[in-house]
Amino acid sequence: MMRITLSGYYGFNNAGDDAVCESIIAALAKEMPEADLTLLSNAPADSRARFGVEAVNRWQVRGVLGALLKSDLLISGGGSLLQDVTSKRGFIYYLAVIALARLCRVPVLVYSQGVGPLTDGLNRRLTAAVLNRTQAITVRDRTSRLLLKEMGVRVPVLIAADPVLAYEGTGGRPVRTLLAQAGIYEADKLVICAPRPWQGVDRVKAFSEGLDVLARQGYKVALLPMQPEADMALCQAIAGHMTERAYVLEGDYPLNELFSLMKAADLVIAMRLHALIIGAVCDCALLGLPYDPKVTAFMQRVGGGELLPLEKMTPSSLADGAQAALAKGACAPKRVATLKGLAHLPAALAKKIIKGRQ
């Protein structure tokens, strides 16, 4: 039996990180059907029900230590765990789990992470010291690799791709049902917008008036709160301030249903990274609103869509950017296919590490 512990931003009801988790589980199951997985989760019972694997409370040292002592490998990732902009506490937590695993002599694989920004010199030195004790590091973009090398990480760093790009799940409720639950009964032309609050700036006017332009052109406009606790109020405010009809997708969607929704869309407008990633796989036109370098890095790597910096976002620039993205169309299929292939690499590497240990 192969035993693997997964450490990430799991159990926080964030659709993007849940998508990462489900994609990693699926990739590992494909490589190692016999593997026994344990998540370090903020909500273990919910994670067991959602992902069908064992889970322990990430905040209880005894449970974390117990999982690690039984493991053949710790996987740290994916997502943006090693950054000190949105959460310094989280950054220290993920480094501490890696350090604890190495104290227990458990190998560590950093799995398709987006590293940075790291603004503090001490945080950079801590990151290098801890990661230099890992067995393998894979990142999801070139910028992360350059940052690690700049900080003094000596372990070879491989550029893979976000785990969600490798997801191949199907099923779930029909898309007609998902849309009907939000009040959308005809969606020949559909725009999905996934905003998020950022830096305390009120962007309701820019979103609502810009999306009104698209609605007047015949598009159904659906707002998707990827992390409801953070995004729902903003999505509802945008819909409420629009003069045209807009819809809020308030359901709890597993990853296969998020894919179904995106496949029905012509255009994805998003601050949230994984809305853009799923949109790229589903052949949507993309308008990325980068609140974080990871959004820009993905859009550049996928080679398609449009980027609109937040500081330049106005109702007219949002509407113009949307039109430019629609005119450009879906991302290049060869680029997407290449990234899908790279997204499988870390799971194969996990198997190699475990086999080498046995």
From TrEMBL:
Polysaccharide pyruvyl transferase domain ranges (all copies): 14-292
SUPFAM superfamilies, per the entry: UDP-Glycosyltransferase/glycogen phosphorylase (SSF53756)
Origin superkingdom: Bacteria
InterPro entries associated with the record: Polysacch_pyruvyl_Trfase (IPR007345), Polysacch_pyruvyl_Trfase_CsaB (IPR019896)
Protein name (database record): Polysaccharide pyruvyl transferase CsaB
Gene: csaB
Residue spans crossing the bilayer: none
MF (Gene Ontology): transferase activity
Keyword set, alphabetical order: Transferase
